[in-house]
């Protein structure tokens, strides 16, 4: 049986290519100005493994109460989609819905992909979509890509492209490790301080996100949830 899918309006792209985002190459790995990690196959592998780790922790690909909406047919946006693993899995499970992924680099599928998926390049602060386009807007693991000052603006963009009765879900990890050794604590502190001072990136962002959400007057029914992720034990030396 064939299935029909509603189309997402074409995005409003500015002239230029994704090469305008290139910052520099270090040890033959390409880095972009707005993201501290490289853009290559190794990074795609890391993001894919990360997806399955957090899928296991949460026992799902989302937490919002949108399952019935997805089954009936919804327009969904994944902001910062990376290689598109989340989009592809969701598109396969909810075939009546249309899934769109966007990222600053095209590490996602560009030719061979499900018919109910779309992928575009773009930035979270300037999403190239019309107002009120999506029923469900999903964003995760953007703490390394969004500065502390830019978080409210990024959330405003998620709200803008989401329908008034739609849902927005933001997932972030907490870099504060519990029962950490002094060696790990000192290492973490140096990284957090360096990124905060040099890039304006706040890695301890999870305590701030609820405040950003509650101070946005267009958002209602805000809920926060957390899970504990167990990692390997470190050792003192």
Automatic annotation (TrEMBL):
GO terms for molecular function: methyltransferase activity. It comes from the Eukaryota. Gene3D superfamilies: Vaccinia Virus protein VP39. Residues 76-166 form the Methyltransferase domain. Keywords: Methyltransferase, Transferase. Pfam families: Methyltransf_25 (PF13649). GO terms for biological process: methylation. InterPro entries: Methyltransf_25, SAM-dependent_MTases_sf. This is S-adenosyl-L-methionine-dependent methyltransferase.
């Amino acid at each position: 049986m064939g299935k029909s899918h509603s189309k997402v309006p074409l995005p409003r792209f500015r002239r230029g290519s994704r090469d305008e985002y290139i910052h520099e190459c270090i040890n033959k790995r390409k880095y972009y100005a707005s993201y501290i990690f490289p853009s290559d196959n190794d990074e795609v592998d890391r993001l894919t493994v990360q997806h399955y780790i957090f899928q296991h922790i949460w026992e799902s690909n989302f937490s919002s109460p949108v399952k019935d909406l997805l089954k009936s047919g919804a327009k969904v946006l994944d902001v910062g989609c990376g290689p598109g693993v989340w989009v592809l899995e969701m598109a396969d499970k909810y075939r009546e819905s249309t899934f769109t992924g966007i990222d600053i680099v095209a590490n996602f599928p560009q030719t061979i992909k499900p018919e109910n998926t779309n992928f575009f390049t773009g930035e979270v602060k300037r999403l190239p979509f019309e107002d009120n386009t999506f029923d469900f807007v999903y964003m995760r693991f953007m703490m390394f890509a969004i500065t502390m000052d830019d978080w409210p603006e990024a959330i405003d963009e998620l709200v803008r492209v989401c329908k008034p009765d739609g849902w927005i879900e933001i997932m972030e990890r907490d870099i504060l490790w519990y029962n950490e050794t002094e060696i790990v604590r000192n290492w973490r502190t140096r990284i957090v301080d360096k990124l905060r001072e040099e890039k304006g990136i706040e890695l301890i962002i999870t305590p701030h996100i609820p405040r950003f959400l509650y101070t946005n007057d267009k958002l209602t029914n805000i809920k926060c949830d957390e899970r504990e992720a167990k990692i390997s034990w470190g050792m003192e030396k």
